[in-house]
Design a protein that fits this description.
Alpha-Beta Plaits, 5 helices, 155 residues, alpha+beta, 2 domains, 5-stranded antiparallel β-sheet, single chain, Arc Repressor Mutant, subunit A, elongated
Length: 155
């Protein structure tokens, strides 16, 4: 089966839903100048094919509770497949780790960890990251201020 090719209407729908995931089919129809049935089919197809991973509410966590965010860089002792898989399995167990990116350069991973305060971060790092046998080095960068945090891709 040939892969689905996105057209301009699909890209417009995706762009609109990135801005507001609660848009109704009626609003999408108006914005794309298409009728209801084709829009419902397109959105369904985009969901089924994985172009839309999920629809979520973006919270302002600072209005809910205090937060401390840090970006530790992780250097592993080995670059074997087993080492990477063990580290990644550990990362997936902890909801405090909001993001994990495998990167090139001196370090192997950069994490985004969000906890309540610096003490909680220190404890989390000591208990769940620094003590892992595969971890060679950790260098942390606590966040002072969030300047930009975009979630929308330019299509």
């Amino acid at each position: 089966m040939e892969p689905y090719k996105l057209d301009q209407t699909d890209l417009k729908i995706l762009s609109l839903l990135q801005e507001d995931g609660l848009l109704t089919y009626k609003q999408l129809c108006r914005a794309t100048h298409k009728s209801h049935h084709p829009i419902v089919e397109r959105v369904g197809r985009l969901n089924r094919l994985g172009y839309i991973k999920k629809t979520v509410a973006v919270l302002d966590i600072k209005k809910i509770r205090s937060v401390f965010t840090a970006f530790p860089l992780i250097q592993l002792k080995s670059h074997s497949e087993e080492t990477f898989l063990r580290f990644q399995a550990n990362v997936l167990q902890h909801p405090e780790i909001m993001e994990c990116h495998h990167v090139m350069g001196q370090y192997d991973f950069i994490l985004k960890i969000v906890v309540t305060d610096a003490g909680a971060y220190n404890e989390f790092l000591r208990k769940h990251i620094s003590t892992l046998s595969d971890v060679q080095r950790v260098e942390s960068f606590p966040m002072l201020a969030e300047i930009k945090n975009e979630r929308e891709y330019r299509l």
